[in-house]
Amino acid sequence: MDFKQIISHCKEYGFIFQSSEIYDGLSAVYDYGPNGVELKNNIKSFWWKSMVQMHQNIVGLDTAIFMHPKTWKASGHVDAFNDPLIDNKDSKKRYRADVLVEDYIAKVEGKLNKEIKKAQKRFGDDFDEAQYRATNSRVVGYQEKMDTIAERLGTAMTDGNLEDIKALIEELEIACPVSGSKNWTDVRQFNLMFNTQLGNIAGEEGKLYLRPETAQGIFVNFLNVQKSTRQKIPFGIAQIGKAFRNEIVARQFIFRMREFEQMEMQFFVRPGEEMKYYEYWKETRMKWHHSIGTPAEKLRFHDHDNLAHYANAAVDIQFDFPFGFKELEGIHSRTDFDLSQHQELSGRKLQYFDPELNENYVPYVVETSIGCDRMFLAALSNALQEETVPDAKGNESTRTVLKLHPAIAPVKCAVLPLLKNKEELTKAATDVYDQLKPHFLTQYDDKDAIGRRYRRQDAIGTPYCVTVDFDTLEDNTVTIRYRDSLKQERIRIEDLKATIAGKLI
Ligand code: ATP
């Protein structure tokens, strides 16, 4: 489905609304509707379980959004959490200068992929993609072009060389997508943190920031957690919470928001052992994405061309969004940068005594950081499909279906009496509903013909529909219909709960 259809599906079925819509909305801020909040909570709980419940050496935390302003000085965000900004003088539109260049690279990649596809068609089964990439002069040319631009952009970003980013935009003759003109301003730095005032304290003294990442709440609590839980290194701290960034350009729906939610885990390790855990978490996180139902071909690793000020290795897990492969999650080896900085600015020791080495040190950190909203968009855009299926009479009909993994589907089960105006059926169906509702989110629906009720449940991703009919009154069995296969089975009411629960993991 295309991106527009996904967005309108989200609104129509109560997944996502624009914030303050009656006032024409607030740019890049969104609200989650009744089905959206369920899906989002399920994603969070799937992540939390995989981190905290499944790892004896990972514990949870929930820290405040406001933190002492020195936190952000220490972390480097006050001085370095900037994006390069550029304006087009004709359209007056504002862009992230690095994204303009990245989009250019993506266009070249599109051309390269086209060449590969063409060759694949031409050579059929004999096609050797690796060899073609290495030898076809046009493909090699595209690849070299992409690599050269990416490397130059990476260096310019790391060095904060704004002039060179501008030069790159001019040399590549990048035009404004709105005006088509190449009349650009200089590139300037723009700090992404929102700020506000503490109580009635005016000026710099009372300046507070809304956290741009949840990680710092974990760093400043490192010793509190370690001492109160008596964890030994290596161990991790996980947190889910809101973060805020004053993004320069906020497009692409919930992909880039100004208020969003992160699921982060900082893993504290011995200095020198960070690369081992970096590799471990890279693989573990990729497996998690597979286990939540995302197909492997829609995911890929992408090494950072320019490292953030705190990292000595960093990789993104990218997902094939409706607008191309983009970052879904980051895995970063953050060294001892944050803890050392907090130690220096607070004057408090943030060290760990390692009983095996008989030595104090500031631990190194490997972090996994995923945006909950981006995961939501990835799951939804992957699952939403239109397909042709036989209807009750065996004729072809189309249905819109959300093939979410049952564990994250908003509603797990719908209980449907075959007919609405037969009291014995509605009573039996209400009994089934009452039996299931304490265990998982269940809906009772008796409006419209059964086929239309199935379609409504398909559209919100309900994996199991249970139909109560006249046979139910005779033998205490119901029909369970599976969303993806459309298979229907007769099962006993007493087995329903276990059958459905068993499929939700
Ligand atoms: P990008 O390059 O897309 O701006 P980033 O590299 O700044 O992202 P990180 O600082 O690594 O992102 O943040 C970790 C995760 O938080 C990202 O992988 C993403 O899923 C999520 N995230 C970051 N910024 C936003 C945003 N504005 N809206 C929604 N999710 C976000």
Explain how this protein is built.
It is a single chain. This protein has 505 residues and is of the alpha+beta class. Among the domains are: 82-191, no CATH class; 411-502, Anticodon-binding domain (Rossmann fold, 3-Layer(aba) Sandwich). It has helices at residues 3-12, 34-53, 70-74, 77-80, 97-123, 129-135, 137-159, 162-171, 215-220, 222-229, 274-291, 337-346, 372-383, 423-436, 450-460, 470-475, 493-502; strands at 16-18, 30-32, 58-61, 82-87, 94-96, 188-191, 195-197, 207-209, 235-244, 259-269, 299-303, 313-321, 324-335, 352-354, 359-361, 364-371, 384-390, 396-402, 413-417, 442-444, 464-468, 477-482, 488-492. The strands form seven sheets. A seven-stranded mixed sheet has the order 3-9-10-16-13-12-11, sandwiched between helices. A five-stranded mixed sheet has the order 20-19-21-22-23, with helices on both faces. The longest helix is centred in the first third of the chain and has 27 residues, at 97-123. The mean pLDDT is 94.
Strand sequence of the main sheet, in spatial order?
3-9-10-16-13-12-11
Portion in beta strands: 25-35%
Task: Provide the residue-averaged pLDDT.
Answer: 94
Total number of helices:
17
Computed CA radius of gyration, to the nearest angstrom: 26 Å
**Biggest sheet features:** 7 strands, mixed
Kindly, what is the distance between the CA atoms of the first and last residues, rounded to a whole number of angstroms? 27 Å
